[in-house]
Structures are given as structure tokens and as C-alpha cells.
Write a structure and sequence with these properties.
Helix content is 37%, strand content 33%. With 149 residues, it is of the alpha+beta class. The protein has one domain: ACT domain (Alpha-Beta Plaits, 2-Layer Sandwich). Strand 1 and strand 2 form a beta hairpin. It is globular, with a radius of gyration of 16 Å.
């Protein structure tokens, strides 16, 4: 089941907006996979409320995982005891209108996430498209960790 990405008010009616309804109408969007962590609440919806037209972050799945904080910070660290922390993880896609350069889309998403405590989004595909290979390498490690948790 696809989750609503936001809600619009039509008079007194609150209508859910689903990602496919938003993208079919405009067409030609570029899509990038992401994994994200979020604190309490729904960070993905909060981010969409902060993004301008032509850019949409929507979730496919949401789960809770217990990840080792030491492994998260540095996968090469050797330790005997894993100290786990609870992480609320969301997987989904980013839809970017073709008129928006990937670097601009990434900057907008970064700005939107800065305002959300405990929330981070990782999209190595978008980082590569934005011409940021070093960041893509770091985000790939975290993206893979969240996808293999």
C-alpha cells in the first residue's frame, strides 16, 4: 500500500495526495531511491511540506530497527559488544521534475531536513547525479546499512 505524501484541504474536506497521482499528471520526473531515519512523527511528510513544486519525497515502507551506533559511525571499527539504538527507518523514492538540476534538488532536501531533529535522508543515487561522489560513497554505506538491517 502506498502512503499519502501530503494532504490538501478542499473546503472542509481533507484529501490525501498519493505520489502516483502527483507524478502522473506532470510526467517526465527523475526518480532516486532513498532510505531515511526519522524521530517521532512523520519526517517524510514534514519534508514535503517544506519543498517547492517539482520535488517530492515519498515513502514506500516504514519500519523500526535496532542498529549499533558504533557500526553506524564507522563500519571498520572492531568491537565486541554492539550498542544498539532504535531507529525509525523509511524507504522510498524522490521524484524530481526535469527542470530541477539534481544538485538543486539535493540542496532543497538538505535544507528541509536541517529543521527536523533526529531525521536524516540518504540517497546515493541523487548524490551521484548531483556530482558529489564523496558524499555518495558515505551515503551508500548508510543507505546499505538501513536496507540490510
Amino acid at each position: 500500500m502506498t502512503a499519502a505524501i501530503t494532504y490538501h484541504l478542499y473546503g472542509e474536506n481533507k484529501i490525501a495526495l498519493f505520489p502516483h497521482l502527483a507524478t502522473i499528471r506532470r510526467g517526465n520526473f527523475h526518480f532516486y531511491h532513498f532510505s531515511a531515519t526519522q524521530g517521532d512523527g512523520d519526517a517524510v511528510s514534514a519534508v514535503n511540506d517544506r519543498l517547492d513544486a517539482g520535488l517530492c519525497v515519498y515513502s514506500h515502507t516504514s519500519s523500526v530497527y535496532h542498529l549499533c551506533a558504533n557500526c553506524w559511525r564507522d563500519e571498520s571499527v572492531q568491537h565486541e559488544r554492539h550498542e544498539t539504538e532504535e531507529h525509525k527507518v523509511v524507504h522510498g523514492r524522490i521524484a524530481v521534475h526535469p527542470d530541477i538540476p539534481p544538485a538543486e534538488a539535493l540542496a532543497r532536501i538538505d535544507a528541509a531536513y536541517q529543521e527536523l531533529a533526529g531525521a536524516r535522508l540518504f540517497s546515493p543515487e541523487l548524490c551521484d547525479a548531483a556530482g558529489q561522489p564523496e558524499r555518495a560513497t558515505l551515503e551508500r554505506r548508510r543507505f546499505d546499512m538501513l536496507n540490510n538491517a
